[in-house]
Structure formats: structure tokens, C-alpha cells
Amino acid sequence: MIDKSPKTIPLFIGGEFVQSKSSDKKEVYDPSTNEVLSYVPYATSQEIDKSIEIAKEAFKQWREVPVPERARLFFKYQKALKDQQDDIAKILAEENGKNFEDAKGDVWRGIEVVEQACHAPALIMGETVENVSRNIDTHSILQPLGVCTGITPFNFPAMIPLWMFPLSIVCGNTFILKPSEQDPHTPNKLAEIFQNCGFPKGLLSVIHGGVDTANYLLEHPTIKAVSFVGSAQGAESVYKKSSASLKRVQAFAGAKNHMVVMPDADKDQVIKSLTGSSCGAAGQRCMAISVAVFVGSSSDWIPELKESLAKLHPSSWKDKKADFGPLISPASRKRVLSLIEKGKNEGASLLLDGSQFQSKHYPKGNFVGPTLFDHVKADMSIYKEEIFGPVLLCVRVKDLDSALEFINNNPYGNGTSIFTSSGSHARKFQHEVEVGQVGVNIPIPVPLPFFSFTGWKRSFLGDLHAYGKQAIRFYTETKTIISRWPETENQGSKLNMTIKMK
Ligand code: NAD
């Protein structure tokens, strides 16, 4: 649990927690009550420089540590995170607001990435071809880059930092994490557990701050690679700035995810899946379903969907019956309420209005109740913007081709799904939809980390996806070595077969 006397949380530099000298601090709130939990310091440029200098020095040694030894430390880290999963989840739920089961899931999905890091010796293999020419072999090896950085969002304060630093560090890099300023206790806890596992000092630093802190890091000449996860605007800026300073960069961005409902789908499964995937974690997931595309007569199920959504109980994570928690901040709540208002004014039918919701036990929290709009059109603000709240939009189309056209015209391409009992509908959908992650009768198709997280279009800027399989390529350089070997004794006399090609 977070200590209740508000204090300034430390930075984590060179394996130690240190108080920042910065006078620039912001409050960290409990989103269920809006009580101040602590203050987060915005690190000074000297503190950032120091963390980078330490990481640069540590890299020289760390890259020489044998890969199995590096991986073995991550086995320890995986066990420690598992043992402390509930403790981390409590800290996370308190500062982020998501319910306890979701908070544990957030930690668990991060642990799965650490498990991927444990496979490093098998993943970091290069390639070899013997005899590319007579007595000449070619092989490639993967080598670490140096000091890397990661900038992470508020909505998964355990999972997303863990998408980045374990895979980067196991490849032999050192890493500076700049987590969200809105829930910084969880990343500090991840760093504390990391250090207690016996990793050498200086491999990981956690530098707190905001946009300027992130920009300072990504423009620093020592930083070799930048991983970003956050809003579309943030991703575009980070992508442009990092590539302008000629760095390797990948930026995971915002989303608008559609679920297609065919009339041949299982109705109960559709309603349950739409209810959970739209409002779970208060809709603050980049893979949340925010648009239900009803094909033909499946729209007859909308009244039952409304009933199901209306039963949801938003409350604090301390309430065991909470289906979902508050939004992260009063500003987020205000934004979501203003979008609901715009939806009404632009002509969508508001079937369920969560904007008036008041929590009996947590009246000061940033709660918004489940909200359902019908007859939504592509030119409405509620469709064009990512709402990031418990708001589901219904769109009605005549057939699967129209559903595909509607989705493919959306600029985002993070996740989508289809609910159907027809193999040919499912096959056509998965083949033709221009979205990176596709669920067939699965509402939120997030791949496990032995695959990659593969957003398309405006949902991802870069070329290799840091999470999962391709992360090893992102965090390493490939070196190709071509070697000529001396002929062995008597070899010359045996080399008399020649191939003549026309
Ligand atoms: P955000 O963009 O406001 O902040 C994310 C991080 O970037 C924070 O650490 C913040 O300090 C920093 N930041 C913000 N603007 C920046 C800028 N212009 N330059 C440099 N750094 C900047 O995002 P958020 O509100 O914390 O998170 C929610 C957003 O993240 C949603 O849009 C959601 O879809 C997206 N998200 C995407 C994925 C994905 O994999 N595609 C996963 C999770 C969240």
C-alpha cells in the first residue's frame, strides 16, 4: 500500500532511490477519492544526465555478461514479481483506479514478458550459412545497442514498463524509464524488486517527469533507441523528434477498436463480450472495444446490450463488487463528459447516459457510468476521437462488406474482432480487415509476448514492435561476418566439381 502521509517519491538512479533536487512537483491522486497520495518530482536535467552517464558506463560491463547469466537474473525477477503480484497490484489499483482483478492482470501480463526475457539465449541467435562461396562462411550475430529509453502511459503502469526494460536489458542494453507522471509508484516498485534480485547497479533508472523530461531523454545524443506507448499526439511527436535525431524509434499510439456482430453469432456471448470489453477498466485500454458494428438483424440485440451495461457497478478497487473504477483524473472525466455532450448534440441516440453517475461511497471520485450511443455516424466527434472512457458506440450496417469498409476507413488499426458462427465470414474478415490484431469470437485479441503486439496505421509508428518477439530485433544491431577459411590438407584435389549456369 502507498504510505498515506503525502511525500515526494524518489527517482531511481544507479541502483538507488534518491530524492530529486527539483522544485517542480505534481500531485499524484487516488482517482477514487481525489486525495493526494504523494508528489512526483520532475527530474532536473542534471539528474537525467547523471542517469544516462551511469547507464553508459554500466553498458560497457553488462554487454560482456554471458547471455545465460543475464537470463538467469530474469528468472529471479519473474519469481519475485509473482511472489509480490498482490502487493504491486494494490499499489497499482490505488493510484490508477482499476479494480483489483484488473490490477493483478496488469502485473501478470508484465510477468509474461519477463518470461519471454528468460528465453533470451534462444531468441538472440544469429544466422549462419556455410559455404556461401568455396571455403567462405557467413554468419550474423545480434549485439546490444547501448542506452535505451522508454516512455510509458498511465493505463498499464506495470505491464507497459515491463514490455520494455526486461527485453532491452536482457539483450545487453541499459535502460532509462520515464513512466507516466499520473501513476509513478508502480514503476518505482518494479525497480525496487528488480534491484533486490541482484542485477548490477546502473542497468535500470526510473526518471520521473512529464513531456519535457521525455523530450530531453529522446533528444539526448547517448540514447540509441526510444520506445513510446501513449496517445496519438504523443506518439507522433515522439516519432518525429526521435527520428529527426536519427534514433531507432517505435511508438505505440491511440486506437478506435470495432467489433463486428454478425446475425449468426451467439447472442449471449456477444452481449457479455461487448459489456466487458467496452467498460472494463473504465474503457481506458488501448484495445477496448469502443464501436460495435451490428450487421443486419443483429441490431435487434441492442436493447439487451443496454440492459447488460446498465447492470455494471463502477466503484473503488476496495469494493470487491466493482466492475470497473474511476477515470484517471478529473480532466479525463471532464473530457469524456464533454464528448458525451457532443454525441447528443451531433445527433447520436443516447440509450444509456453515464454522465450523471454518482458513486454513493466515493462521491469525489472521477467516475463515469456505462454509456451507450446508437445510430453513430463516421463524421461524429464521438467516432472520430478516442474517448478512453466507458462509452460504447453502436453503428448499423447492412452486410459484412459494409462493416469492413467502415472499419478500414478508420485511421487507427490497433485491434478488432468479429463474432460469427460462419467460417467463411471469419476468414473473409481476418483476411480483408486493415487492423493489426484480430479476434474471432474474442473481443480483446492481445497476443502473448512470444508473438508481437502489432498495431497498424496511426496506432503504431515505427517498423519493429518492441513488445514480444520482434523486440529482440528492435533492441539489437545485426552484425554480419563473412570469413574465408584456409583450405585443409588435400582439400584442393577434391574440389573438382564445377557448376556452369547459362
Ligand atoms: P499520453 O500520450 O498522454 O502520455 C504517455 C506518456 O508520454 C507519458 O509518460 C507522458 O508524460 C508522455 N508524453 C505525453 N505527451 C508527450 C509528448 N508530446 N512528447 C513526449 N512525451 C509525451 O498517454 P496517456 O494518457 O498516459 O495514455 C493513454 C493513451 O495511450 C491512449 O491514447 C491509449 O490508446 C494509448 N495506449 C496505446 C497502447 C498501444 O499499445 N497502442 C497501449 C496503451 C495505451
Q: Concise description?
A:
This protein is of the alpha/beta class. 37% of the residues lie in helices and 22% in strands.
Question: What features would you describe in this structure?
Answer:
The mean pLDDT is 96. The protein has helices at 45-62, 67-83, 85-96, 100-118, 120-123, 159-170, 185-196, 211-219, 232-244, 267-279, 302-310, 330-345, 381-384, 400-408, 423-432, 471-474, 491-494, and strands spanning 11-13, 16-18, 25-29, 36-41, 128-133, 136-144, 147-151, 174-178, 204-206, 223-229, 248-252, 257-261, 289-295, 349-352, 371-374, 391-397, 412-413, 415-419, 437-440, 456-457, 460-461, 476-484. Helix content is 37%, strand content 22%. With 502 residues, it is α/β, with parallel strands linked by helices. The longest helix is centred in the first third of the chain and has 19 residues, at 100-118. The chain is built from 17 helices and 22 strands. Residues 151-156, 178, 180-181, 210-211, 214-215, 229-231, 234, 237-238, 252-255, 286, 386, 388, 414, 453, 455, 459 line the site of nicotinamide-adenine-dinucleotide (NAD).
